[in-house]
Amino acid sequence: MEIVESIELLQQRMMSARAAGKTIAFVPTMGFLHAGHCSLLEEGRRRGDLLVLSIFVNPTQFGQGEDFEDYPRDLQKDCTLAQEAGVDLIFAPSAVAMYPHGYATEVNVAGITAGLCGASRPSHFRGVCTVVTKLFNIVQPHVAVFGTKDFQQLAVVKRMTRDLNLPIEIIGMPIYREADGLALSSRNVYLDPEQRQQALALSQGITLAQELVKQGQTDAATVIAAVSCHLGAQSQVRSDYVAICHQSTLEPQQQIDGDSVLLVAALVGRTRLIDNGYLMDLS
Ligand SMILES: Nc1ncnc2c1ncn2[C@@H]1O[C@H](COP(=O)(O)OP(=O)(O)OP(=O)(O)O)[C@@H](O)[C@H]1O
Ligand SMILES: CC(C)(CO)[C@@H](O)C(=O)[O-]
Ligand code: BAL
């Protein structure tokens, strides 16, 4: 496994791989890898001859007062996990290499970025789309793998890839959870034991909603109220949003159907967590 910091060197490696007819699979991350990331890497390993992992805590997707400085980092452990997952190449650029003095270009996807996380983090998706576009241009993958834990991010990246005619297949992988239901997230490390326990309200809220729908409830407002009430019962949990949306457009829905997804974001103490789940099992 090779670790590359230089954009130019990475581009040379990718050009050689393409010239040799290799399929390039790419998993973009901000590092501090956990089993959720490893599930993306496993899928990437299955789909590509060459598996590239990027580790870059992207400053432009963090708003004022957010946790950019404190974001957990452990490159050494990431390298060990990446090697075990069969990564061929880690791309870990510096912020100054990605955004040199005079950098002036942003990528903005309208509409689908306005609500949900975009409402409370207004510049977030502009930062994500800008860095993902740059990473796509540098790595030039055939396939890129993302997690559905960041459901809106995945929808935005799919929209952007279509809109910009990028010849990249975007794959979404299921949410990897702890045994008790908590979605794995690098930010879980911020939680103290009591907050860790109360954070279960997010996944429990999703299960509660799924049960209500199974019992025949199709009114979105009723389900949202039940989930909000469950979150509100925890002293350290403050709901940011509970929404029921169409899985592709992310438009809010009043009636629940086979395309409905429940999306939740909440502050647990000072840690912002997100989770989601489909509401109807059509299988
Ligand atoms: N539990 C999970 N299951 C599956 N994929 C995940 C999970 N957590 C993160 N991912 C995916 O890993 C990729 C990189 O995400 P990132 O590095 O931000 O990790 P994270 O754990 O989501 O961190 P954060 O705490 O910042 O939300 C994204 O595509 C994200 O959706
Ligand atoms: C896609 C991404 C790597 C862009 O910085 C980040 O938003 C993430 O880790 O989900
Ligand atoms: N996985 C999303 C990264 C962020 O919250 O900035």
TrEMBL record:
Return the InterPro entries for the record. Cyt_trans-like (IPR004821), Pantoate_ligase (IPR003721), Pantoate_ligase_C (IPR042176), Rossmann-like_a/b/a_fold (IPR014729)
> What EC number(s) does its UniProt record assign?
6.3.2.1
Q: Where does ATP bind?
A: 30-37, 147-150, 184-187
Q: What class of enzyme is it?
A: ligase
Output the SUPFAM superfamilies linked to this UniProt entry.
Nucleotidylyl transferase
Q: Which residues form a coiled coil?
A: none
Catalysed reaction(s) here are:
(R)-pantoate + beta-alanine + ATP = (R)-pantothenate + AMP + diphosphate + H(+)
- Give the principal location in a single coarse category: cytoplasm
Subunit and interaction comment: Homodimer.
Query: What is the annotated role of this protein in its UniProt record?
Result: Catalyzes the condensation of pantoate with beta-alanine in an ATP-dependent reaction via a pantoyl-adenylate intermediate.
* Name this protein carries in UniProt: Pantothenate synthetase
Q: Which organism is it from?
A: Pelovirga terrestris
- Which gene is the coding source of this polypeptide chain? panC
